[in-house]
Design goal:
By secondary structure, this protein is α/β, with parallel strands linked by helices. It is 18% helix and 43% strand.
């Protein structure tokens, strides 16, 4: 019934700025779709998954109302330090979930909580 995750959408005050920050960090292009009303939906694609940034709307799509995206990484501590160095803030962890599996959560410069998972 279910296959792989195709898209993970987060809600951001400035979707284009959020996508550009992640695009630069991941060294991937940013894609934009501008609606007739001028609203911007921006996204990056990594590992076959679209990570989208939709305009936040307090009534329908509040910032922080989306799930936490966990990126698989080779070294939680190294990637966490890299994210902190480029403007993220500590949110939670690192935590050991089970032997060989750790997670941490950080807040990107635009307020979105992101997770990393790995050894």
């Amino acid at each position: 019934m279910f296959k792989t995750v195709c898209t993970v959408m987060t809600f951001a005050t400035d979707p284009e700025a959020s996508a550009r920050w992640w695009g630069e960090l991941l060294d991937v292009p940013v894609k934009l779709d501008v609606s007739d009303t001028g609203a911007v939906y921006a996204w990056v694609e990594i590992g076959g998954v679209e990570v989208g940034f939709h305009p936040a709307d307090d009534e329908r799509n509040p910032r922080g109302g989306s799930p936490v995206v966990y990126w698989g990484v080779d070294d939680v501590d190294r990637v966490r330090e890299r994210l902190l160095a480029v403007g993220c803030e500590h949110h939670r962890g690192p935590l050991t979930i089970e032997p060989g599996r750790r997670i941490a959560q950080l807040r990107d410069p635009f307020g979105t909580i992101v997770g990393i998972e790995g050894p």
